[in-house]
Amino acid sequence: MPRKQPLAEYRRKRNFAKTKEPAGGTSRRQSKRLRFVIQKHDARNLHFDLRLELDGVMKSWAVPKGPSYDPKTRRLAMQVEDHPIEYNAFEGTIPEGEYGAGTVMLWDRGTYEPEEGGGIDAIREGLERGNLKIVIHGKRLQGGWVLVRTRADARGRTQWLLIKHRDETAKDDFDVVDEETTSVASGRTMDEIAEGRANARRTAAAASRKKRPAPRRRRPTRSKS
Ligand code: MN
Domain residue spans in the chain? Predict the structure, then answer.
């Protein structure tokens, strides 16, 4: 049976001559722990992209309001096309006119695992069943979370709900999306990423380093004619 190209839809939607997003397929390394990332994406509508590693790709959901630590709050999560593992390192701006045009921030990252053990099989089974209980080990997201499938929308995309489990990490009155507004990777704000400023930490380090004058460039002499 021919295996379906897992990133076909992802690649079909993008022009890699124009966007700096990765085409993917270069990361062959199977990580010991399953990776997790959330990207804040200021596209036509601001949203948060939740990505969970499985079988060599990042399963992806667009969460319009982002995650909530309040177990009473159910956040809509639209399943979107699988993304390459390399997308986990992407932060920058997708140019105007391209798919998903806008600024992308690495908002959280880490690893995740099935809540009740069972390894990768438990993740596959949970996704299949439409009820995936996981524990997230991120910087900003921690503890138990569940993804529950509800239905497909008019465009055939699958709707899920992202809900915080009631555990010791749950918080009723903490708006993590409001509190955490910088990149977990570079420390930059959305505006700084949009302006194309260099990594905030690296910039600070570079500024403290001894400055060496840039070599003078000779201007070509232009003859008036
Ligand atoms: Mn997105």
Answer: 8-21+32-195
Sign, Cα dihedral of 7, 10, 14, 18: negative
Each residue of 11-59: pLDDT tens digit? Answer: 999 999 999 999 998 766 666 899 999 999 999 999 999 999 999 999 9
Query: How far is the centre of ligand 1, averaged over its atoms, from the C-alpha of 48 (Å)?
Result: 7
Question: Can you list the alpha helix ranges (DSSP code H) found in the chain?
Answer: 8-12, 119-129, 176-179, 190-194, 200-208
What is the pTM (predicted TM-score) of this model?
A: 0.84
Which letter does DSSP use for residue 44 in this model? S
Residue whose tokens read 């190209």: 5
- For residue range 167-218, what is the model confidence (pLDDT) as tens digits? 999 999 899 999 999 999 999 999 999 998 766 555 555 555 544 555 555 5
State in Å: Cα 171 to ligand 1 middle.
26
**DSSP string of 129-183, one letter each residue:** HTEEEEEEEESS-EEEEEEEEEEE-TTSPEEEEEEE-SSTT--TT--HHHH--S-
